Structure to design on (261 residues):
């Protein structure tokens, strides 16, 4: 499977089993039940996999895609001819595509998701158009790119906002809420997750009757192994916010047990 095709499947998992439909009868069957965007990207994937046999009409992009989906399709076409073929051997903007210092909008969304904030590309695009994401650091051929420092700063801002450490975009404050919690055992830490921070796990244990947050947390989807384990000082706002919510959870749990008893 070509790299560009793989990215289509990431965005449209429903298409995974339809990529190898080659004859016209099966292709017609594969199209059944798909919306216009899904059908267009499926045809694009067929072209990526079999450029000599599967034709793709650029008019499909004009007729069936707009905004973020159109931008993604154009990005994938460029990626296909650069990464999956040898037709563009000396790209004029190789610095952007080959370096890890810059992120396209799609890569921006993927990086946030890997680090525990599940923002699909559509949401990143929506936030950008509404001014909630800063302007790109670089624009090449109409494509927008953000420097890795800008992506990291935005991740930290959204993480802190979800933890109630910074003002929410609507002017209010967001409350740190425990979405899932597991009690510690004799051999394992207790685990908790905060609402909005998927794939991010905080650890805690008990000292006497009080739950105590561990000074590290784990980001399961971080691509770089070194980014999976993050540390925080007990004096940091992040640590204090999660510890405060942990205390509140067990205080409410104790009150509930008293009421039921």
């Amino acid at each position: 499977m070509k790299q560009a095709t793989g990215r289509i499947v990431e965005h449209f998992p429903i298409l995974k089993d339809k990529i190898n439909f080659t004859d016209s009868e099966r292709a017609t069957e594969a199209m059944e039940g798909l919306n216009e965007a899904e059908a267009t990207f499926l045809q694009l994937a067929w072209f990526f996999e079999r450029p000599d046999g599967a034709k793709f009409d650029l008019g499909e992009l004009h007729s069936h895609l707009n905004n973020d989906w159109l931008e993604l399709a154009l990005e994938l076409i460029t990626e296909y001819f650069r990464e999956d073929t040898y037709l563009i051997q000396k790209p004029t903007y190789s610095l952007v595509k080959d370096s890890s210092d810059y992120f396209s909008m799609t890569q921006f969304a993927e990086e946030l998701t890997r680090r525990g904030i599940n923002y699909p590309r559509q949401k990143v695009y929506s936030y950008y158009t509404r001014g909630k994401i800063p302007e790109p650091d670089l624009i090449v051929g109409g494509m927008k790119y953000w420097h890795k420092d800008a992506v990291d700063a935005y991740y930290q801002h959204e993480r802190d906002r979800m933890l109630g450490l910074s003002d929410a975009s609507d002017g209010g404050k967001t409350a740190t809420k425990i979405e899932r919690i597991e009690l510690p055992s004799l051999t394992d830490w207790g685990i908790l997750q905060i609402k909005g921070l998927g794939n991010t796990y905080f650890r805690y244990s008990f000292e006497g009757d009080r739950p105590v947050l561990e000074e590290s947390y784990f980001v399961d989807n971080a691509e770089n192994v070194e980014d999976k384990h993050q540390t925080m000082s007990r004096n940091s706002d992040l640590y204090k916010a999660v510890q405060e919510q942990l205390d509140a959870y067990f205080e409410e749990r104790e009150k509930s047990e008293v009421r039921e008893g």
Notes: Residues 97-162 form a domain with the Multidrug-efflux Transporter Regulator; Chain: A; Domain 2 fold (CATH 1.10.1660). The longest strand covers residues 210-219.
